[in-house]
Every structure is written in C-alpha cells, then in structure tokens.
Amino acid sequence: MNPTLRRAGAHVLVDDVTRPTLDDAAGHHLFRVLRIGDGETVTVTDGAGHWRSCRARAGTIEPDGEMAFVPRRAEPITVAVAIPKQDRPEWLVQKLTELGVDSVVFCHAERSVVRWDADRAGKHLAKLRTVAEAALQQSRGVWLPDIAGPRSVRDVLPGAAAAEPGGRPLAVTDRVVAIGPEGGWSPAELELAAATVTLGDTVLRVETAAVAAAARLVVGRA
Hints:
The protein is of the alpha/beta class. It has helices spanning 3-7, 24-33, 88-99, 118-139, 153-156, 187-192, 206-221, and strands at 10-13, 41-45, 50-57, 60-63, 68-69, 78-82, 103-108, 146-152, 161-169, 176-179, 195-198.
C-alpha cells in the first residue's frame, strides 16, 4: 500500500477524483466525527482504481497531488457464497472488502435456508454495497468489489472450486471459490464443481469459510 494512503487522516469515496467533492454525510463524518483539521491529508478514491491526495480546508477538501491509478489484479478473485442468516451477509461483505476481493456473488443452493426473492434482492444488494463502501474507506482500498446475486449455484460451480472436507488444498491459481450453505453441498452440486478444496479440519460457518478462503487467495497473490 502506498504510504500516503496508509498515513492519511481519512480515506473517502467520491464520484470524481479529478474534482473531488464531499456530500453532506461524508463532510459530517470527516469534520464532525473524525475531527479532521485544516491542513490534514485526506485521500479520495472513486472505487475504480483511481485515488488522490487532498488537504482539508475550511470544511472541504482540495486536491494536493496528482491522480494515481492502481490496476486491478490480472486474475480477479471471486467468492461465491450461499446466503448466510441474519446480518451475516453484511459482516461477510465488510471483511471480504477489507481483504480486497474483486467480486462477491450470493447464491441459492439446494440446501439453502435463506433465499432472497426478486422483490427484496435489490434492497439487500443496495445495503451490502453501502457496507462495502464503508469498508473500502476504512481499509484504504481503491477498488470496490462487485456485489451480485442471487444466482443459482448451479450456474457458478462449473467454474469454481467448492469448499468441501477432503478436497485438495486451495491454490493461489484458484480464481473462484464457492462456499456452500450450513447444510452442505448436495451430491449433485459437488458433481458440477470444477474442483473441491479443503479449508481445514474444523467445521466453519459460511461467513468464516468465505473469509478464510479469501485470505488465502489474496495473501497468496500479494
């Protein structure tokens, strides 16, 4: 990570890095919650790889450096996951964003307990994208992950490594890892998977397995 990103007083998502402006919520967070003072460094990003250093001035920010660009990794990392219960999707998206995965795909599996109907899926995704934006700012990232779903896991598994006890070790060359529901994959689903991979000797919750897999892939490619 660039030292300027790490050391800045705050990191803010904006629409346009060339002319960064703060909406009311961002301004309140910077100057009322974080208490950023005049002259402090604030970095901004558009969530699409561009970022820039700015200075806080009288309740706003002014560009204080050239725009920089961080290319997306050559082999994007996707985590496909059966939708977990309650507020666990939010925790999952927060942590996967902090880790720097490229895409999170929520799926319906044969043994899924939680399913999103068409009427509510958009609301769920909008909320999760807001979670991702906050996590990106906290973690000083410059690429927002794509949050998608719900998709049938049958459409995802043919190109994915499915987490399953007894599988081979997860490899850094794996680009898509799929995490099943708490009831596990059905035999038919396992037959569709490109491979099966182990995440250890203990039984993990859906969200824990997703984070464990993402951490191995991200660190392995760092």
